[in-house]
Write a structure and sequence with these properties.
heterotetramer; B: 322 residues; mainly alpha; 13 helices; globular; D: 322 residues; ABC transporter involved in vitamin B12 uptake, BtuC; two-stranded antiparallel sheet; 2 strands; 74% helix; binds adenosine-5'-triphosphate; binds magnesium ion
């Protein structure tokens, strides 16, 4: 039969008993090694490739200790239906926990619910979902955006003309971030937002949009952008080569830091900020999952979010002109596309989120 | 009595000019400032360069007829951009090697497309669509280790920067003009080009006039691949960075640019000048809608409507009743 | 069935620059067979398409039972009881025989589904009309693509007949039928006539016309030039009507001396036992400067002979050019050996309709102009050829589609003149070409042969063959059935030989 | 008996090759995933495949008639956004029913727009539907600029969890679609469709209402796209204007794998249904075969290309033998 345990009362570490049909994953409390599944519907981004690579890396640690088996990774460019298929395949493979980076705010709800009902620990990484029983692990997107928005507002002395380049409109992370930006800007009535456009989270579009803006508003005071689009935007500024660079927001990618360093050679007074958006939240999520599977008790008081199921990971690093060198040092032996990152250690995870 | 008619590329250019002039009156337009207007116009043309180059191969395969189309162009752009990026590693003297690699890899992929289309008689649409998936697969295989590389200063200098501080014409535009001239040479002043038009109109006539239809068809897909490869090289020179989704956004606009430029989608008639004009029109419309702060929904609808109008004007087919 | 009569008066029909009908007339009544006769391209098929509503007419009038009608579509004509056997067939090859025959008129079951069983039975009943004349595996469920040409033709006939029309147009319905099948068709035609159907019969075979038709109507270059009762006219007179030239061109036979000097010319082309799908062992020798005519009814392998020589279709046998054995696998190779082919269907095989006259002229020759192409030279050469051919055009950059049929045909020949080949293979080059242009062609051909070019000249126009050629071979069923030259080269002999009556001078 | 040739076989049973492919794929999948025929697994797979199956059916009808429809994904998006915004997460079943009908109306209207341009104005299908796909996705974005909204979970669960007689709901839907198709196929209209796709000129001469038949194929495609849109909305329960976009090319691939040639007039609807299922199964095989993550896309795309090329390869080999 199907499990009837109400999801709200689920104790993830004590999954409900179910029948022994061969089609059902073995869900009764069992010991290690555990199998953890990953569902990622979008591979055409460096964030995601770094995320997958780090997950594999961190899992090796646990494999060595005999706590987990090899990860079951479902990762391909696909749509909502495709991700539902990914999740179903993971369930069919009998995984003990699923880390999912969702492609849609509500589209996976029923499927994830099904997984939760099967006693699988489901963790949504990077993006917050509002599904009973599904945990979230990620940074606070709103706070993340506020950090750089505040920096920009202060750099402009509280007044000036700016433009905004956002990611995919309506994407949950983007919505949260833009809310944060709006909140900050609301405190600076003299900062005027001339225009806002989507850079679709990619460099080329960001570059195009910024080029358009620079042509339309040659005397721009500053701009706020996020993630991958920041490199494109900065490239556009360099190409346009205005007398005075607008104050601008950057991103935590090695490529950006190197560009920053380069610009400084010509314009020593150039300033920007890079707030890391760490793919490392996923491996951190993996650590949380493993510890939950091992029966460690989560300290509910440390969780936030609508359902009280969100693990909020602190932003690992913020680079300003003061610690640029630190960032560049990290980047020394890293590929250009590397995103400044932070993966919490097992101990840090235990200290931060679990009952002693 | 001669009917008043206007050639499609000219129509596209006129449309572009009219749109641009109108854009001046928009709230965020250039207004009366001639310098801003010039800057804006230059910028739009500069942005059109990359679309224009990528649409070059598309122009060729569409001219070759038999429902010719290249849906793998987007992923080839990404692939060669990544290859350029990792080959150059910031060193000027590797740039030529990277260019060569881009062209050869693009040509190889195009060649495989051509083999499937000419010998296995797979429809170009399906063949190049499938190939696009394969190339995307290759990109992921190459990219998963997080590619490490860098474009060379000379690439940035030659592609992304203006000619000189005093002459604010971006080099990209100059490259495009030279490229356009070469494309013209190929299409209008070479035997290959003449044969290409011939197979696009009528393959039987072409064969009976001594044209090697098979070889020409194979060559055109190979060349289209190489041109997409060149597009990838240029694009990475402009962005300075690579990422997996670099080329895909260029794919459908590249087909639209060809259509707007008046190249007959059934093959046998068209020009690269038209495609250049088409690329400018599309870039202009996109940028106009951006300036007008139109939401994405309106932008897409306007783009769709524009295309529909353009093809209604010169894309009609013959009716059954004569 | 009540009586019916249809008349077409002063029909005008243009296709772009080509005038297919300039003054077409036709009358047909219940219970009679009218033969619509004319040379190739004289407008017979166009007339059929005017009557059955497939094309829009540019002028003239259709009267059905005395009342003017306009057909806005094939449906409209069909509603009035007009059915057509199309020369090019109107079959969908990926559908079955039954589906094709009953398309749009499928018998339905009460639930709206096609009653396949009834349709099969009805098809079988129809096939019975021709029973015994085709292979047993032609069944209602056979795909049309799997049929032989004669079987397809039968299906096309049955398709029209199944409409039980008042007026039936048979456009060259006998062209690909064998004699037994033709016999059967004629029996049927007689029966239909008795039933009161009106029948328009298009054919190039005189013998058939005299057997079956009651009246005739002759088209020449889009104009009806004679109508009357068959019994009032002889075969010879009819042919005369069809072919009579306004005396613009006098065929000048090469004088005896020239002919004998021609005999001393070296051999250019030797063909031994050439065999293809349609050709069954052809042996020909052509001398330099010889103008060799190829005659015979349409579709006896003339086209294959030319295409095989030009490397477009595979063949067995030996071909020698100036003693050297060649086997071309692609027209390009034939071109390199200085051969040229003027194909039969200029629209489908000879021209790039939407491209310019210049490009059409130069298509086989671009390599000569280097890279970048020396357009000035190319234009100069094209202009020279167009002047030599007195091409009537608005300019070299105008598309070929803007030219009239005769001028378009000049372009097809002109593109080879530019390459100056040693040997021309001509596949009915004067089809649908007006008299003046024909005259110019004749002059050109004579000139070319005087310059020592060998010419293989297939024509469906017997006058041309007789008037121009040094020697004519007549093909019948893939074989040479007669060779006519000198005194034996007369039109009478040629026609006789074409019909397969091999009493022609087997000189 | 030369008549019963391979060509005839492929023509009579166009799904033949597709079914072989499906059987092979199922066998491999079964080896890798022994529980795949269990009720839950079967149901969970089939409910995911259903939207694309429905879409492929519509696409197949257009392709049979000699066209192609690039806008199907856009229509799916419109339907999805209508349902997600108008029914809402807390809507009633009555509301759902109402808007299911509205959605179907919208799908038919969108199809009719395509049909109008293609059948009556005689524009090229590929570029016309490409243009309208912008219109449709733009319109969907207009209805629902940001992902969100949805339909009530209970209604979604009906779709997800209904398994009458232990068989997935999708089987019944497919059954009904195939029955309806078999009915249509055996009406006059069915014959018209094949005639128009096979030889429009001959069909016209035979008094088939060619223009209307062409028009109807796009309407049918719009209708099926609406059904696909309803299915995917029931599957995901949420609204997203981009939801249909990736489905277009998949539907075309499914049709071709299903043995329906892009040239029209050959094939059927059963083949594309099989093709769509095969594509889904291939995805499963990749997933269960434990291929290195980074190779998955490449392997999958290569399998699809080989599947697309297979009939061509077989033909080439047969030609060689003859
Ligand atoms: N890609 C294609 N798609 C559809 N039909 C084609 C294609 N390529 C050639 N054809 C058909 O083949 C015929 C001529 O091409 P073919 O390949 O035979 O010539 P060729 O390449 O010049 O010959 P060869 O291969 O001997 O050099 C034409 O009738 C044309 O319709
Ligand atoms: N669709 C068309 N487009 C252009 N020209 C055409 C078309 N159909 C026929 N013609 C031209 O119209 C003229 C008359 O053609 P039609 O087919 O009526 O001749 P016909 O008497 O039937 O010849 P045949 O004996 O060869 O069948 C020819 O010059 C032909 O080339
Ligand atoms: Mg060939
Ligand atoms: Mg005719």
């Amino acid at each position: 039969g199907t499990p009837a345990t109400p999801t709200t009362a689920v104790q993830p570490t004590q999954p409900p008993q179910t029948g022994q049909q061969p089609t059902q994953p073995p869900v009764e409390s069992k010991g290690p090694p555990f199998t953890i599944g990953i569902s990622n519907p979008f591979i055409s981004s460096e964030y995601r490739t770094q995320m997958i690579a780090e997950l594999i890396e961190v899992n090796k640690e646990y494999m060595a200790k005999g706590l987990t088996t090899e990860l079951v990774i479902e990762s391909a460019d696909t749509d909502v239906a495709g991700q539902i298929q990914q999740l179903q395949n993971l369930m069919a493979k009998g995984v003990d926990a699923i880390l999912v980076n969702p492609s849609d705010v509500n589209g996976l709800n029923a499927t994830l619910q099904e997984a939760v009902n099967k006693g699988i620990i489901v963790i949504s990484v990077d993006q917050e979902l509002n599904v009973p029983g599904v945990y979230n692990v990620g940074i606070d997107q709103k706070e993340w955006a506020k950090t750089s928005a505040k920096w920009l507002a202060e750099k402009l002395g509280g007044k000036g003309n700016i433009v905004l380049i956002e990611g995919f409109p309506g994407h949950p992370a983007n919505v949260a971030r833009m809310e944060g930006v709006d909140e900050v800007l609301a405190q600076y009535p003299d900062i005027k937002v001339l225009a806002k456009d989507t850079g679709k989270w990619d460099e080329a579009t960001g570059q195009q949009v910024m080029s358009n803006f620079l042509a339309a508003y040659p005397n721009l005071d500053g701009y706020w952008t996020q993630d991958g689009m920041a490199i494109g935007a900065l490239q556009a500024v360099i190409a346009a080569n205005p007398a005075k660079f607008p104050a601008l927001v950057g991103e935590g990618r090695c490529q950006f830091l190197k560009l920053w360093e380069q610009v400084l050679k010509d314009r020593p007074d150039f300033e920007t900020i890079a707030v890391a958006n760490p793919p490392g939240v996923s491996p951190t999520g993996l650590r949380i999952a493993v510890n939950m599977l091992l029966g460690k008790q989560v300290d509910k008081s440390k969780l936030g979010g609508a359902n009280g199921l969100s693990f909020v990971i602190p932003v690992p690093i913020i680079i300003t002109k003061d610690n640029l060198q630190q960032g560049l040092d990290i980047c020394k032996d890293k590929p250009d596309a590397y995103l400044l990152d932070g993966i919490m250690t097992d101990q840090e995870v235990l200290d931060a989120f679990f009952l002693k | 009595m001669r009917k008043f008619s206007i050639s499609p590329p000219v129509a596209a250019i006129l449309l572009a000019i009219v749109l641009f002039l109108l854009s001046g009156f928009l709230p965020n337009g250039y207004g009366s400032d001639i310098n801003v207007a010039i800057a804006q116009a230059t910028n739009i043309v500069r942005l059109a360069v990359f679309l224009g180059v990528i649409a070059a191969g598309q122009t060729l395969v569409i001219i070759s007829g038999f429902e010719g189309i290249d849906l793998s162009a987007g992923s080839v752009v990404t692939l060669t951009a990544i290859l350029t990026y990792v080959t150059v590693k910031g060193e000027d003297d590797k740039v030529l090697l990277a260019l060569l690699i881009s062209l050869v890899v693009g040509a190889l992929i195009g060649f495989v497309n051509g083999l499937g289309i000419t010998f296995l008689k797979i429809s170009p649409f399906v063949m190049t669509l499938g190939m696009s998936g394969v190339v995307t697969g290759l990109i992921i295989i190459i990219n998963h280790g997080n590619v490490s590389g860098k474009v060379a200063p000379i690439m940035t200098r030659l592609i992304a920067r203006p000619l000189s501080p005093d002459i604010p014409i971006p080099n990209a535009i100059i490259i495009w003009i030279i490229f356009g001239f070469l494309m013209w040479l190929l299409l209008e002043r070479s035997t290959f080009g003449k044969h290409l038009f011939a197979i696009g109109v009528n393959r039987v006539t072409a064969k009976l006039s001594g044209v090697n239809v098979t070889a020409t068809n194979l060559a055109v897909y190979t060349l289209a691949g190489a041109l997409a490869g060149f597009g990838g090289f240029l694009v990475v020179g402009n962005t300075g960075v690579v990422f997996i989704a670099l080329g895909q956004p260029f794919l459908f606009p590249s087909i639209a640019a060809v259509a707007v430029g008046g190249t007959l989608l059934s093959g046998g008639k068209g020009s690269y000048w038209g495609t250049m004009a088409g690329a400018i029109v599309l870039t202009l419309i996109t940028s106009l809608l951006t300036t007008m702060q139109m939401p994405d929904s309106v932008r897409r609808m306007v783009l769709g409507a524009t295309l529909l109008v353009m093809i209604s004007i010169y894309g009609r087919q013959r009716g059954f009743r004569q | 069935m009540s009586g019916v009569s249809l008349s077409a008066r002063n029909i005008v029909k243009r296709y772009g620059g080509v005038v297919a009908l300039s003054d077409g007339n036709l009358d047909v009544h219940s219970g009679e067979v009218v033969a619509l006769i004319g040379a190739n391209g004289s407008g017979k098929s166009t007339m059929s398409k005017v009557i059955n509503g497939v094309v829009v007419l540019d002028g003239g009038q259709l009267l059905l039972d005395g009342k003017p009608v306009r057909f806005s579509s094939p449906q409209a004509a069909r509603k009035m009881g007009i059915a057509t056997v199309f020369q090019e067939l109107s079959l969908v090859s990926k559908m079955t025989v039954a589906d094709n025959i009953w398309l749009t008129r499928e018998p339905l079951k009460p639930n709206g589904m096609v009653d396949r069983k009834a349709m099969r039975e009805k098809t079988e009943a129809l096939l019975d009309l021709f029973s015994g004349t085709f292979k047993a595996d032609l069944k209602p469920d056979t795909l049309v693509s799997a049929l032989h040409p004669d079987e397809k033709q039968i299906v096309e006939i049955l398709k029209a007949v199944s409409l039980n029309p008042r007026i039936l147009i048979l456009d060259e319905a006998t062209a690909s039928l064998d004699s037994r099948q033709v016999e059967r068709l004629f029996e049927l035609v007689k029966r239909w006539k008795e039933e009161g159907k009106a029948i328009v019969f298009v054919s190039h075979r005189m013998e058939e016309i005299f057997r079956i038709a009651d009246r005739y109507s002759v088209l020449r270059n889009g104009k009806t030039v004679g109508e009357g009762h068959i019994k009032d006219i002889t075969e010879k007179e009819l042919i005369q009507l069809m072919t009579e030239k306004e005396k613009v061109f006098q065929f000048k036979k090469a004088s005896v001396e020239e002919e004998s000097s021609g005999l001393q010319q070296p051999v250019y082309l030797e063909i031994e036992n050439l065999t293809t799908e349609t050709l069954r062992g052809i042996d020909i020798t052509v001398k330099q400067g010889e103008l060799l005519g190829i005659g015979g009814l349409q579709g006896q392998g003339q086209r294959d002979l030319l295409l095989a020589l030009f490397g477009d279709i595979p063949y067995q046998g030996t071909v020698r050019i100036k003693g050297e054995v060649v086997k071309f696998k692609h027209p390009r190779q034939a071109m390199k050996k200085k051969l040229a082919l003027v194909p039969g269907d200029r629209a489908k095989e000879g021209l790039l309709y939407i491209r310019s006259i210049l490009e059409n002229f130069l298509l086989p020759s671009w390599q000569k102009y280097g890279f970048p192409l020396k357009m000035k030279h190319a234009r100069r050469d094209a202009l020279a050829v167009s002047e030599r051919l007195s091409l009537v055009m608005s300019g070299l950059m105008a598309p070929v589609s803007s030219l009239s049929g005769g001028n378009a045909q000049k372009v097809v020949i002109g593109k080879w003149l530019l390459r100056d080949p040693d040997c021309y293979l001509l596949d009915d080059p004067t089809k649908g070409v007006d008299v003046h242009t024909k005259a110019e062609f004749y002059t050109l051909l004579t000139e070319l042969s005087q310059q020592g070019k060998s010419i293989l000249f297939y024509s469906s126009d017997d006058d041309e063959l007789v008037g121009l050629c040094d020697r004519v071979i007549v093909l019948h069923d893939g074989k040479i059935c007669a060779e006519l030259k000198g005194a034996s080269l007369t039109k009478e002999n040629l026609i006789a030989a074409s019909m397969g009556v091999s009493n022609g001078g087997e000189a | 008996m030369k008549r019963f040739s391979w060509d005839e076989m492929m023509n009579r049973y166009p799904a033949f090759f597709a079914i072989i492919l499906l059987v092979v794929a199922l066998t491999i999948n079964f080896i890798l995933q022994p529980n795949m025929f269990a009720r839950d697994t079967l149901n969970s797979n089939m409910r995911v495949f259903l939207p694309i199956i429905l879409l492929s059916v519509g696409q197949a009808i257009v392709i049979l008639g000699g066209g192609i429809d690039i806008s199907v994904g856009g229509i799916v998006s419109i339907v999805n956004t209508i349902l997600a915004t108008q029914v809402g997460l807390n809507g009633s079943p009555e509301k759902m029913w109402t808007f299911v009908f509205v959605s179907i109306g919208a799908g038919i209207l969108a199809g009719a727009i395509n049909g109008f341009f293609i059948a009556f104005l005689r524009l090229q299908p590929i570029i016309t539907t490409y243009a309208t796909s912008f219109l449709y996705v733009g319109f969907a974005l207009f209805i629902l600029p940001n992902p969100g909204g949805g339909i009530p979970a209970e209604i979604a669960n009906v779709y997800r969890n209904t398994t009458p007689l232990g068989l997935p709901l999708a089987f019944y839907v497919i059954g009904v679609v195939l029955l309806v198709w078999m009915y249509i196929r055996s009406t006059r209209y069915g014959n018209y469709l094949y005639a128009v796709g096979g030889n429009a000129e001959a069909a016209y001469e035979t008094a088939v209402p060619v223009t209307w038949v062409l028009f109807s194929t796009y309407v049918a495609s719009g209708f099926m796209s609406a059904l696909a849109g309803i299915a995917i909305t029931m599957l995901s329960g949420s609204g997203n204007a981009e939801i249909g976009v990736p489905m277009t090319l998949t539907s075309i691939t499914a049709v071709v794998i299903g043995g329906t040639a892009l040239s029209g007039g050959v094939g059927g609807v059963a083949g594309p249904v099989v093709g769509a299922i095969t594509l889904g199964i291939i995805q499963n095989i990749i997933s269960f075969s434990r291929i290195d993550t980074w190779w998955e896309t490449f392997v999958k795309a290569s399998i699809i290309v080989v599947a697309l090329a297979a009939p061509g390869i077989i033909n080439l080999l047969r030609r060689k033998k003859v």
